[in-house]
Each structure stands twice: as C-alpha cells, then as structure tokens.
Amino acid sequence: MRKLLLAAAMLGCYAAQAQQLTPTERKLVAAVRQRMPQTEKLLEQVVNVNSGTLNVQGVREVGTVFQKEFDALGFKTEWVAMPASMQRAGHLVAEHKGKKGKRLFLIGHLDTVFELDMPFTKFTRLNDSTATGQGVNDMKGGDVVILAALQALHANGLLREASITAYFTGDEERGGHGPEARADFVARAKQAQVALAFETAIDRHTVATARRGSSNWQLKTFGTAAHSSTIFKPTVGYGAIYEAARILNSFRETLGKEQYLTFNPGLILGGSEVNYDEAKAHGEVTGKTNIIAPTAAVAGDLRFLTEAQKEAARTRMRAIVAQNLAGTKAEITFADGLPGMPPTPGNQRLAALADQASRDLGFGPVVAGDPGARGAGDVSIVAQYLDCLDGLGAPGKGAHAPGETINTKEFPKLVERAALMIYRLTR
C-alpha cells in the first residue's frame, strides 16, 4: 500500500509539472501525437529496406526516403560522397539556416549491422507494445525520432529561425578508413554549438553524457608446421594456435576487470593456411588435425572511455604478445576507430535539459547512464568540439542481433521529448 501511495504521489507530481508547458509547447506535443500514424509508417518503410553498411544501394535507398522528408521541411539536402575505394554509400546532410537559439547538430546513421548475406527481418508487430525488424531501434528508429520531432516543429511554424544540421552517416557500423571518412562530419559539427545524437534509448529515463570509444586490433601468431605427435617438444614448440590461445587468455586475466575497458576477439582462424579479408570480415582456413598449425589470425575490438585508457591497454597487450611460447612468435597491430566521449559539465547541462523536458511532459526524471552500458558512436568524434548528448533515439532491445525490437508505446514519448528539447534549444 505504501508503494502504491508513493507511486500515486509521484504521478501527481509529474502531472503537475506537465502544466509547465507553454501553450506553444502543448501544440507541439499535440502535433507529434497527431502525426504518429505517419511516423510509424515511415519507420516501417525504412526498416523494410536492407541497409547493411556494405549494401551501398540499400543505404542510399534509405537515405533517399529521409532526404525527401527533409526536403519537404525546407531543409537543404545533399549527399557527401566517399572515395570509391571505401565502398561506402556516403552521408546524407540536411541543413536549415537560422539566427535564433543554439546551432544544433543532430546525428543519425542510415546503415545497420545486417548485411545482405544475413537473414532479413521486415518490420513486424509482435504485440500492442513491441515491433521487430532490422535496425528498428539501431538506428532507423532514432532517425525517425529526429524527423518526427522536426515535422511537429514545422507544423507549428517553429523552424523558421532555427539553425539545425541533421547529419545521417552511411557507415557508422563499419566506418570507412582514413580521416576523409568523417572530415565533412567534423567540419560541419564545428559550426554548431550543441550535438544531439539519437542512438538507441536504453529507456526513457536514461541518456548518455559519455560513451566509450572503439578501436580494432589484429593478432597474428606463427609456429612451426610439423607432425602433431611432436607438439610440445623443444625442437618444435607449441604451434600458432596455442600461442593465440595463450595471448587471448592473458588479455582476459590481465585486463578483464578494468572499468569501462573491454576487448573482444570477434574472429579467429588457425591452421596450415589462413586467408583473412578484413574489408569483407571474411576468412578461409585449411588444416588437419595431425598437423601443427603454423599460423593463426585473430581480429577484435577494444573499447575504452578515454584516450589514456586506450593507450595504457595497448601497452599492456603488446607486452603480453611479446612473451611467446617456445617455438612461436606473434605480432599485434592496432587501428583507431571512434574516440571516447568523456563526461563534461556541458554534456551534463544537456542531460539536465532532457530531465526538465521529461518532467514537464509528465514522463518522470532523466539521468545520465553508465558509459559502460554503451558501445561507440559517431557523436564521440565531435565530442571535443561541442557539448553532446546521446541516447535520445528509439526505445528498444536486442540491437545488433536477430529479433531487434522497438517499444512502440514508449516511442511517441521520446519523439515528444526530442521535439520539446529542440524547440527550447532553438528559442
């Protein structure tokens, strides 16, 4: 009974706070609700197009759908092409010029992790509160949150003086290599004051003021090819696969308990002949049980909160790699990906804005979530230049896995919150 009374009191408090919305803000919220059927149709339309990063045609098709929506709002749209060697679709940019309020940089991405050779799942309603489909929350749902919020603002004439750039990258899940992959992204972000990123909302009470960065590593080990009956003998040694296993286990034992640090070996090959195509994330191997493997290869990622944490981890990993088993040798290389996004006072102020908007809407409080609960994201690339907030997208579970879902009952609330935040920032 006490819990019920407390819950009722909290609901009453939130309802009272919701009265803090101005008449204009109440019209804005009403526009979001009125347009929700069209919003959900837009989500279904883009989810039903495969846009795995390497499916250039599919990524462009999804981007073209969004481009038409931005054009209808009076945004100037364009595609930023990537070098042909990257085999990426490029990025969709939509700009609206204005002189009032903060200059906003809204971040989404068009691609998903689901490539063409993976089973395809269309948008499917599972019940009255859940739908599934490829990228439904990561992050086509987040892209639609952006557009639905802007459409509600436009319907009320609230975009006329706003300065907003929406940037939908085409390769967030598997970024193209080299600084040119995000050069335009960074340049446009530097012209803004606030970045709002719409990756999956863990729940509507949590946002991200910090995100971990991501980089890649490749391990290669070498041994002596010989008959399996001679393994462990001083003249032969342990072979490449045992050396790879030693290194991976030492990584786990030595670095596996550090806060915000993770390292995942996502692919491993070992045998008599190994061929690994990094661009396609595909490998082929041949070998026999009675032959000691002369070579092995492992590809993995490394996630961290700060650059200092990343560099310290790399130093320790190199030291482990150098302690070879008898008859083996090994080498490890690292490639930078997305930097970390440490928490800052400016980011926390944006979290406070989200909190106030949520309370005013009667949805309850919002807090900064655990950085360890998230991976890397495009927002981290620009975090050193402006205040940033992420996790403002669609609510759901199972991102990057078959059966990815969106909570269709919570979804409209996050669109309302996004619209209200954008409105208040651009006043």
Question: What keyword list fits this structure?
Answer:
427 residues; alpha+beta; 6-stranded mixed sheet; 18 strands; 24% strand; Aminopeptidase; disordered N terminus; 4-stranded antiparallel sheet; Alpha-Beta Plaits
Describe this structure in words.
InterPro entries: Bact_exopeptidase_dim_dom, Peptidase_M20, Peptidase_M20_dimer, Peptidase_M20A. It holds the Pfam family M20_dimer. Residues 1-18 form the signal peptide. Keywords: Hydrolase, Metal-binding, Signal. The two termini are 44 Å apart. The protein is α+β, with helices and mostly antiparallel strands. It has helices at 2-18, 23-34, 36-47, 56-72, 140-155, 183-189, 239-255, 307-321, 345-360, 379-382, 411-425, and strands at 76-80, 91-96, 100-109, 124-127, 130-132, 162-169, 194-197, 206-207, 213-222, 262-271, 273-277, 282-286, 295-304, 329-338, 367-368, 387-389, 396-397, 405-407. A hairpin with a 2-residue loop joins strand 4 and strand 5 (130-132). The strands form five sheets. Strands 1-2-6-3-7-16 form a six-stranded mixed sheet, sandwiched between helices. The protein contains eleven helices and 18 strands. Helix 2 runs antiparallel to helix 11 (411-425) and helix 5 (140-155) packs across helix 11 (411-425). Residues 1-18 have low confidence and may be disordered. It folds into two domains: 11-211 and 341-425, 3-Layer(aba) Sandwich (Aminopeptidase); 213-338, Alpha-Beta Plaits.
